[in-house]
Amino acid sequence: MVPTATxxxxxxxxxxxxxxxxxxxxxxxxxxxSAQVAGVAWLIGLGLLIVGVVPxxxxxxxxxxxxxxxxxVVLMVVQPSMRTDGDAEAAVIATAIWLVPAAAGxxxxxxxxxxxxxxxxxxxxxxxxxAVAGTVSHRNSAIGLFGVIWD
Length: 151
What we know:
Shape: elongated
Strand content: under 5%
Number of helices: 6
Mean pLDDT: 77
Number of strands: 2
Radius of gyration: 15 Å
Distance between the termini: 54 Å
Low-confidence stretches: none
Helix content: over 70%
Number of domains: 1
């Protein structure tokens, strides 16, 4: 039986990561600063995912965990919050869809004792939340991970 405090730790920390990202996106005044915060959070998340996944692959035999670092790299390529058409609503919808794997990992992995990988997922939640909140709050720019598109 899992203690109640442990059972709710993953969802609570995931929700806090999303809220911190949203607050950072709204508080940060410069679009460039938002992109840098989002990028650094993404980079930390990728590092945690690699550190948490690579050593455990041969021992646990679960190749499903190997999807998370690949997912983080695909996020860098896709940049769901960085829209070239200026449509902030579409950026929010696209980012919400791309948040699902990170949120699922952040919620389920702590129960399996994979806290480092879960922390990497939380960093990805923070990165995407910061980027999309920055895109919505800055009218003349679209913010991604390490990048800004000016309208």
